[in-house]
Each structure stands twice: as structure tokens, then as C-alpha cells.
């Protein structure tokens, strides 16, 4: 395999894997999505790639030191975070960041006011700092408001930080300054922490939610707040949820194994993509297409990629957040340009970011503190390339800040 992700698109035929081979992963055939590759790589069933991966602060608001550069100075162009080149995953919450390295260690920085860094304190941390000694951290879960969720390789789910609506899922409303396990189950697969609620998928394809639900954002058919996980319906075909953005203020999104896209919760700007501005308390299918592969949600703007590599956006277009060349509100998906090479996306505070299959990084929308990484504070309503690098792999948007991981 080459140094970069293969970056193919999903097909109706499932890819096959043979392995492991001599402890070095397996051999692969078929056409793969990035998520499929990541899932198999975590199981040791994918050919290993030795690729140095530095982390970068692309730009933006830095009052809580969330850019990881040891200062509180806002930045408007990319700056490497430290000297480590072994980063694997990266997630931003509203004002804090968490990342894992290839050895399974977890590193945190940014705001700690409610214990969201999980280090037992409430102080801000200016540079990536290792949390404990565990080497079993797999992936952080989305971008919560003053809280963070994390998955370990044993399938357990953990939360830390603000918990006033039970968004940590630990059956109470007490804030935590250290990661606390959500129940005792070991079958969690993906999690998304959002403004004040959390939802997650288990390995059996079931969907679960907890936290605040005043606008139906838990998808349980009511507006009741829950402090422990509740199953959303009875289906077992949920495949993916947002992971690299702030996840939607009070909205939720998920894609099923059949490629259909579903949404629920707050919809005042049409961010659910359902052609209206009516909030929903249960999942509703977005259109009739079966070609959705990835979805990410900003505060009130939503982005998604189809299996043909096209990028689509809807919701609040203020500041150019949708990348459609205007500031219009759209309540149904609209294609962003004509490119068919989008592979990674992230939604932030009135902005969006994306990476093409060629490894180029693009940003658009609100840029008042340089979060677009374009060396200025000009707003752009269409995607603009950040620098000339063709090695970008991961982009994560927080509250007016952008961070990324690069393959070199």
C-alpha cells in the first residue's frame, strides 16, 4: 500500500480482508472507505503503514490554549504542534482538544474549566500533555461543549467534564474531572459528544443516546433528559455518526449501512436537511438517496460526502459556512461545487473544512480570528485551499479553531 490512505469509495459489494500476516496486518482487496480502513487497521487486519504524522494548529481562537502552541495568541496560518510525528487521531471539543498517538496513549490540551481534559483538575493546558499511562485509547468521540467522550480498545466508553444534563451517560448530573466509564459494556464502536447530549453506535449496529433532549435531539420520540444510554428505536443497521466536528448544537445525524442519511433534533435553520425548519424528536430520512458515506455537523451547518466523492451542505449559511458562494439558508442538501474528490470533512462554528483525495486542505466560512488558516481574517463563502501541501489526512474543527494531522 502507498503511504497515504487508499481513499476509495464504498460499493454495494463488501471488501474482503485476509490476515493477519506475520503480525503485520492483512492483505486487502476491494474498494474501501476511510472509515472501513480505520476499523480494520484498529483490529490489526490491515497492512501496516509507517507514515510520520505531525499535528498542526491550522488557525483560530486560542484564548484557552486550544491550539496547543503554549500561548493564548490567535493564529491565522498553520503552525506545527510540538515535534511529535506519531499522531493517529485528533478531535476538538468547543475549547479543548484530545488526540491519540500510535502507541495508544491519550494527549490533551486546551480549556479544563469543567474537568473536560480528564486530568483531575480544571486548569487550562497549553501544549499536548499525556493523560495517565494507558495505551488503550482508540478514538475520542466528537466535540462536546465543555465535556469529552473517549473510546478504548476494549470497547469501553468513557466521559469527563460538564454533566449538567447527564451528557456523560453515567446515571447522574455531576461534573467529572477524570474519565468515568459509561456503564460496564464493552461493545461501543463510535461516539459523538455535541453541545449538551451524546449519541453512540455499538458493534451490533444499535444506536444509543443520552443527555439533554429539549428539542428531541436524542431521537427517542420525546423531549425527556436522560443521564444514561437509551436505545434509539430497535434497528441494528446504524453505521456512522459525526466524529471530527463540534457535532451540531442540538441536532443529530447518522448514516445506515444501506447508505441512507438520517437526522433529528433542532432544525431552526434547516440543518436537518429535511426541506423545512421543523424540529424532530425521532430520526427522519434525508431524501431517498442511498449514496451517503460521511456526515459532519457544525453549530448550525451540516456537511456530508456521497460515495461519488461529491460534497453537500445545508443549514445556516451565515459567514459562508456552507461553501456555496453565498450566505443563504438552505433546508435541503445542495452540492458544493462540482468536485468529486472530497474524502474528509469537518464542521465548526459557522465554517467548514475538507480534505480532497489528493491530500489538499480546504476551508471556508467564518474566519474572524484566522480559523481558516489562510493568513488573514477574510470570510470566504467557497472552499479555498490552505497552503500547497498534498499530505493532509485529518481535519477537526472546534469553536472558531481548526487543527489537523498531516502524513509526511
Q: How would you characterize the overall build of this protein?
A:
There is one protein chain. Residues 1-14 and 18-26 have low confidence and may be disordered. With 408 residues, the protein is mainly β. Helix content is 2%, strand content 39%. The chain starts with 15 loop residues before the first strand and ends with a strand. It has two domains: 1-49, no CATH class; 156-406, Methylamine Dehydrogenase, Chain H, CATH 2.130.10.30. The chain has one helix and 30 strands. The strands form eight sheets. A four-stranded antiparallel sheet has the order 4-3-30-29, with no helix packed on it. A four-stranded antiparallel sheet has the order 5-6-7-8, with no helix packed on it. A four-stranded antiparallel sheet has the order 9-10-11-12, with no helix packed on it.
Overview features:
mainly beta; 2% helix; Methylamine Dehydrogenase, Chain H; 1 helix; globular; 408 residues; 2 domains; single chain; disordered N terminus; 4-stranded antiparallel sheet
Amino acid at each position: 500500500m502507498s503511504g497515504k490512505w487508499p481513499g476509495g469509495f464504498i460499493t454495494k459489494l463488501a471488501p474482503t480482508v485476509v490476515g493477519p500476516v506475520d503480525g503485520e496486518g492483512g492483505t486487502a482487496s476491494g474498494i474501501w472507505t476511510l472509515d472501513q480502513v480505520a476499523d480494520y487497521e484498529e483490529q490489526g487486519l490491515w497492512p501496516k503503514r509507517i507514515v510520520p504524522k505531525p499535528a498542526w494548529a491550522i488557525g483560530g481562537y486560542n484564548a484557552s490554549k486550544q491550539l496547543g502552541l503554549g500561548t493564548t495568541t490567535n493564529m491565522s496560518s498553520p503552525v506545527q504542534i510540538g515535534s511529535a510525528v506519531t499522531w493517529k487521531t485528533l478531535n476538538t471539543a468547543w475549547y479543548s482538544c484530545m488526540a491519540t498517538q500510535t502507541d495508544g496513549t491519550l494527549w490533551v490540551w486546551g480549556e479544563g474549566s469543567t474537568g473536560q481534559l480528564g486530568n483531575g483538575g480544571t486548569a487550562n493546558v497549553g501544549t499536548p500533555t499525556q493523560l495517565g499511562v494507558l495505551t488503550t485509547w482508540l478514538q475520542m468521540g466528537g466535540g462536546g461543549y465543555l465535556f469529552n467522550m473517549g473510546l478504548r480498545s476494549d470497547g469501553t466508553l468513557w466521559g469527563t467534564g460538564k454533566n449538567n444534563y447527564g451528557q456523560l451517560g453515567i446515571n447522574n448530573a455531576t461534573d467529572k474531572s477524570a474519565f468515568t466509564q459509561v456503564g460496564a459494556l464493552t461493545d461501543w464502536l463510535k461516539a459523538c459528544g455535541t453541545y449538551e447530549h451524546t449519541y453512540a453506535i455499538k458493534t451490533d449496529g444499535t444506536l444509543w443516546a443520552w443527555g439533554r433532549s429539549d428539542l428531541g435531539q436524542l431521537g427517542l420520540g420525546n423531549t425527556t433528559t436522560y443521564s444514561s444510554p437509551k436505545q434509539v428505536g430497535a434497528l441494528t443497521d446504524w453505521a456512522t455518526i459525526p466524529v471530527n466536528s463540534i457535532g451540531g448544537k442540538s441536532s443529530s445525524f447518522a448514516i445506515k449501512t444501506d447508505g441512507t442519511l438520517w437526522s433529528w433534533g433542532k432544525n431552526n435553520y434547516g440543518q436537518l436537511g429535511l426541506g423545512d425548519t421543523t424540529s424532530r424528536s425521532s430520526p427522519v430520512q434525508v431524501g431517498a438517496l442511498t449514496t451517503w458515506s460521511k456526515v459532519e455537523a457544525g453549530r448550525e451547518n451540516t456537511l456530508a460526502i456521497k460515495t461519488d466523492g461529491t460534497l453537500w451542505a445545508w443549514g445556516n449559511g451565515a459567514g459562508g459556512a456552507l461553501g456555496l458562494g453565498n450566505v443563504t439558508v438552505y433546508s435541503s442538501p445542495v452540492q458544493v461545487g462540482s468536485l468529486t474528490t472530497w474524502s474528509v470533512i469537518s464542521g465548526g462554528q459557522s465554517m467548514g473544512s475538507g480534505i480532497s483525495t489528493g491530500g489538499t486542505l480546504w476551508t471556508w466560512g467564518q474566519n474572524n480570528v484566522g480559523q481558516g488558516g489562510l493568513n488573514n481574517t477574510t470570510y470566504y463563502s467557497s472552499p479555498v485551499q490552505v497552503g500547497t501541501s498534498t499530505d493532509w489526512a485529518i481535519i477537526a474543527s472546534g469553536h472558531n479553531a481548526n487543527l489537523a494531522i498531516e502524513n509526511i
